[in-house]
Write a structure and sequence with these properties.
By secondary structure, the chain is of the alpha+beta class. Helix content is about 45%, strand content about 20%.
Length: about 130
């Protein structure tokens, strides 16, 4: 095998022979900064869990489990396992989610029509957070 030559194993494919160039540490740092800026502009950086919005939205998603829609009362019952939000009532939860564009609405879940939240609304808010 030659220097700079190797095989690329991409997920779900066969290894492909390829050649690369030597990249020193300074060039790697420059490439990383450039990639970070591109992702930042594109809005594709990972969500920062230190942001209050991200913490809240992730807690709501975790409380929803696999449900696409969940009544507020059921969501509050599940949020008790998420300490900062365990004491929330329906009004407080709605007030905290409203700035992120997540509002409760009438949902039919299992033949019962009550106020609740949609997973898609929470996911969209998390993408913007």
């Amino acid at each position: 095998m030659q220097r700079g030559a190797g095989y690329l194993l991409a997920e779900g494919s066969l290894p492909s022979p390829m050649r690369t160039y030597y990249v020193d540490d300074d060039e790697v740092k420059m490439l990383m900064k450039r990639a970070y800026r591109f992702r930042e502009v594109a809005g594709t950086l990972p969500q920062d869990d230190s942001k209050p919005a991200v913490k809240l939205l992730k807690a709501v998603l975790a409380a929803m489990g696999d449900a696409e829609r969940l009544h507020t009362a059921d969501l509050l019952a599940e949020l008790v396992t998420h300490p900062p939000y365990a004491e929330h009532d329906a009004a407080q939860l709605a007030e905290e989610l409203r700035p992120y564009g997540v509002t409760p609405g009438q949902l039919d879940v299992g033949g019962r029509n009550r106020n609740g939240y949609r997973r898609g609304d929470v996911l969209r808010a998390l993408d913007r957070a």
